[in-house]
Structures are given as C-alpha cells and as structure tokens.
Design brief:
This protein is mainly α. It has a single domain (11-190), classed as Tetracycline Repressor, domain 2 (Orthogonal Bundle), CATH 1.10.357. It is 71% helix and 0% strand.
C-alpha cells in the first residue's frame, strides 16, 4: 500500500514512475518488471519508489487507477443512449487493454490469486469500479425504459468483461472494436424490451 511518511510526494515524480511501470510492463512483460527498472526508466531512485510502494504490483494498481481516471474522463462522455454508451465504454476499455494495460492487468491478477490482500485491493480499486460503471449505465437504461432487466445486470456485466478476460488470457482472438460491437449487440438482445428487440436499431 502506498506509504504516507516522509516528505510530501512529488506528483511529477509519481506520474513518471506510474507511466514507466506501465510502459515497461507492456514492453517487457510482467515477470521481467523490476523496481530497479521502473526507477531507472522514470529517472528516480529505488528508495524513492520504495518510499511510496512496497512492490511492483502496488505500483501497477495505482498506475491502472490513475490511467482510468485520466483516460476515461477524456475519451468517454455518457450521452444517454444506453446501448451506444455501452459500446463506447467497451471500445475505450478494450483500446486501453490492447495498447497499454493488458499485460499489467493480467500480471497483477495472476499474483492476486495467491495474495488475498492484493486481490481485495485489485477488486476495490480497479475491477470493481469498472464493473460498477457499466452496471450503472445499464441500470439507467432500465430505469429509462429502453432496456428490460430480463437477466440480472451483474451477470450481464460478467458477460461483457468475461469475454475480454478470456481473450486477454487465451490470445485466441482480438480485443477490438468489433468485439465491443458484438457484445453491445448481444446485451441489446438480452435486455430487449420486446421479443423482437434488436441492437442499436439494427434489424
């Protein structure tokens, strides 16, 4: 967990360390990532890194949270068109996984299987908020009457992100805009308000 003792942290130095961790993880892989490598890439000392984080997994969790807060606010603005919003938020999420955070997310998740405390932190700060955001969009669609809760919304969220995780782990197919479209179309059918419901007005 991030420490609080010592001199006030430099936000510029912290951001450099977070960005370096994601860059090196994407380039070299999670197993090859080291505190020394992160410090060298960020132009910081190892003691500076250790003052704020105990290990690489904690650095990457903070990096994932920081990136989500920066990127989603910029790339996604809710419109009120529920199914379009679902597709866009999935496209943004998949783009980040493809281009930068996929190796970090999979690596931390693997370590979390053996570390209950790390697992809880990952769920509380990275995975849970992502699930909540998608569920809230769907809930607003149900409340507006454009969707029907024919299937429990948490299960629909599992379906949407479960496809992403399966492809992240198996590498059998891409995590791309087409997958986002297919998932949003499937959600439209799962939550259709009529037996003839289609997706995004498609027939």
């Amino acid at each position: 967990m991030t420490g609080t003792r010592g001199r006030p942290r430099s936000e510029e130095a912290k951001r450099a360390i977070l960005d370096a961790a994601l860059l090196l993880c994407e380039r070299d892989g999670y197993q090859q990532l080291t505190i020394k490598g992160i410090a060298d890439e960020a132009g910081a000392g190892r003691q500076t890194v250790y003052r704020w984080w105990p290990d690489k997994a904690d650095i990457l969790i903070d990096a994932l949270v920081d990136l989500r807060e920066r990127e989603l606010a910029t790339l996604f603005q809710e419109t009120g068109d529920t199914l379009r919003d679902v597709e866009v938020v999935l496209k943004v999420t998949f783009k980040l996984n493809r281009e930068l955070i996929g190796p970090a997310l999979v690596g931390v998740m693997a370590d979390a299987q053996r570390d209950p405390e790390l697992s809880k932190r990952l769920q509380d700060t990275v995975i849970g908020p992502r699930r909540d955001a998608l569920r809230d969009i769907l809930r607003r669609g149900v409340e507006a009457g454009t969707l029907a809760e024919n299937v429990p919304l948490p299960l629909v969220v599992d379906f949407a992100f479960g496809a992403m995780w399966y492809r992240l782990l198996s590498h059998h197919a891409p995590i791309d805009d087409e997958l986002a479209r297919q998932i949003s179309d499937a959600i439209a059918r799962l939550l259709a308000t009529s037996p003839y419901g289609g997706a995004h007005g498609r027939t």
